[in-house]
Amino acid sequence: MAQITLKNLAHSYHPTPKGEQDFALKEMDHVWQDGGAYALLGSSGCGKTTLLNIISGLLKPSQGRVLFGDRDVTDAETAERNIAQVFQFPVVYDTMTVRDNLAFPLRNRGKDAAYIARRVDQIARMIGMETILDRKARGLTADAKQKISLGRGMVREDVNAILFDEPLTVIDPHMKWELRTQLKQLHREFGHTMIYVTHDQTEALTFADKVVVMYDGRVVQMGTPEELFETPAHTFVGYFIGSPGMNLLPAEIRGSTAHLQGAAVPLGAAYGPVSGRTQIGIRPEYAVLTEGDGLPIAIRRVEDVGRHRIVRGEVAGQMISVIAPEAMPVGSALTHVRFTPDRINVYADDWRVAPAEGAV
Amino acid sequence: MEKTQNNKAWFLVLPVLVLVAFSAVIPLMTVVNYAVNDTFGNNQFFWAGLEWFDEMVNSQRLHDALGRQILFSAIILAIEVPLGIYIALNMPKKGFWASVCLVLMALPLLIPFNVVGTIWQIFGRVDIGLLGHYLAKLGFDYNYVSDPVDAWITVIVMDVWHWTSLVALLCYAGLQSIPNAYYQAARVDQASRWAVFRYIELPKMAGVLLIAVLLRFMDSFMIYTEPFVVTGGGPGNSTTFLSIDLVKMAIGQFDLGPAAAFSIMYFLVILLVSWVFYTVMTNLDKEEGK
After folding, report:
1. What is the band of A360 on the pLDDT scale with cuts at 50, 70, 90?
2. Cα B85 to Cα B169: distance, rounded to the nearest angstrom
3. Which of A118, A208, A266, B5 has the most CB atoms around it within 10 Å of its CB?
């Protein structure tokens, strides 16, 4: 097991990249702690899989180094890196039995038969396949096959890290929950570094201690689920995390007040001069409908999602979402919306601006 | 609910029936007719029963030709299948060179059979042929006209040259359909090159490979044109395969009765083998979809 360090890492699929737009992965510097459970979150095509394949050695980066502990493994083969990886679509060896499938990575590394047998039994019990160990893998259902893939990923105890590339895409929703819980439990038990790629925020937030949000080939924020929720570092994080995402409104920032088309919104802190395209971001959870306090809102639509309702309305010409608690009646008397001042984040050119220090 | 019975629907099958009758059934029945009768021309037939079949089953000449035929098919399958797989594995997967390879591989398949025969007939000649001449210069005693072993080598090399591409292209298509994740998983699992072939590539190729073997078996078992052009079945009878022998018997000696009996047995053997292949293949599919 080892800490994974990415140094000036960048990758382009073009043989001669001309500019930044040719890079699938923009230059980045990151340290992934040993034993951490990380989720790589982002929409399709943002470079998650590219980054994962660079860590596992299936892809050689165009520039930069990858370090496992103190060892530079940039040029090392996948096998040498001692990594396990589970792919999006189930990869099983069809002509082998389930048992041979699970034993395959251990046999290839020349472990002794008694150890292999013990380990395979252990893993089989974990993924609930002890009764069909002697069946051929061919002809099993997609989720059974994916469980075999997961099992094969976890069968080695000495791996540096286990990488998951959207492994639950093909699994039934109720099994997803169960498998994810199992993975989490395994992580606690064995303390492997786990990196989990997904585009599903629920999956990321429930699995990981640290979520790494990627956008357009860049890591825009690496933080705990709470940090991502409260202080998104980039408007993409605000919009991507949460359901519905953060409301963004163009505003002019002057000290501790934001001005939206004439209306003033108090902020929780004072800001120095902010340049560029400025916006304020407020989570729907921190917006409250009122009968006259705050900004005028024109309600357009109310969606009941069960435990609460999502109210969509227009503020200063922008559509925003507000979450109304289950018990609260939503009627025509509610004409205004109030934002909780210290929950408002300020963005300049999509990046979060920290409040000025010492200012009141 | 009562089903509507309407036998008029049978008329819709009539065109196909007529077509198949003229293209297959009627010609086949004339062969059957010849096989159970003796004729001296003028459309006069005398009932012979199973006499011709009896004669053919016990004919040493046919046994010899069948033996040569089986040996020939076995040899070319043993060479073309592994060689085809090997070529397919080593062909570039994409890019400019993949296209170049595909075109080069497809070329021999596009040449008419008798042209292939003529090419090799000249190529192998000791006096003017490029191959024969230089083999002789290098000190090899090579002459496919007089030496049975040389004749066999020539016919086999010609068939390998002509048909290995087919096996290679079919396998190549099978290989191309394997998702990249399988190879990546194998790298993660530290699988050896052999294990990748044995557990990933071969199982995924099995379907197309079986078709390739079936096609090559049938074609080689019925081979006629190329060896006929190159060796004419000689020297002696050493390269007289079943088809060549059949034509000699039917057209050369005008023994229509025995030749017809021979044809029917030949046809049944090929039908039987194809049926076996078909059964194996559909079983494989079933297992896949289980």
Report:
1. very low
2. 9
3. A208
**Rg over CA atoms, chain A:** 24
pLDDT < 70: residue spans in chain B: 1-2, 41, 285-290
With beta carbons under 8 A apart, name residues in chain B contacting A94: 203
Per-domain boundaries in chain A = 4-240, 247-353
What is the rounded CA–CA span in Å between residue A148 and residue A308? 39
Domain ranges of chain B: 67-251
pLDDT tier, A359 (very low <50, low <70, confident <90, very high otherwise): very low
Domain A247-353 in CATH 2.60.120.260: no
Residues A113-151 have pLDDT tens digits of 888 988 898 888 888 888 888 888 888 888 888 888 888
B67-251 is a CATH 1.10.3720.10 domain: yes
User: What spatial distance separates the first Cα and last Cα of chain A, rounded to whole Å?
Assistant: 46
pTM for the model: 0.75
Q: Specify the CATH number for A4-240; select among 3.40.50.620, 3.10.20.30, 3.10.310.30, 3.40.50.300.
A: 3.40.50.300
Please state, in angstroms and rounded to a whole number, the distance separating the CA atoms of residues A178 and A299.
Answer: 40
For residue A315, name the pLDDT band (cuts at 50, 70, 90): confident
| Mutate: best of A60, A87, A149, partner B, most B CBs <10 A | A87
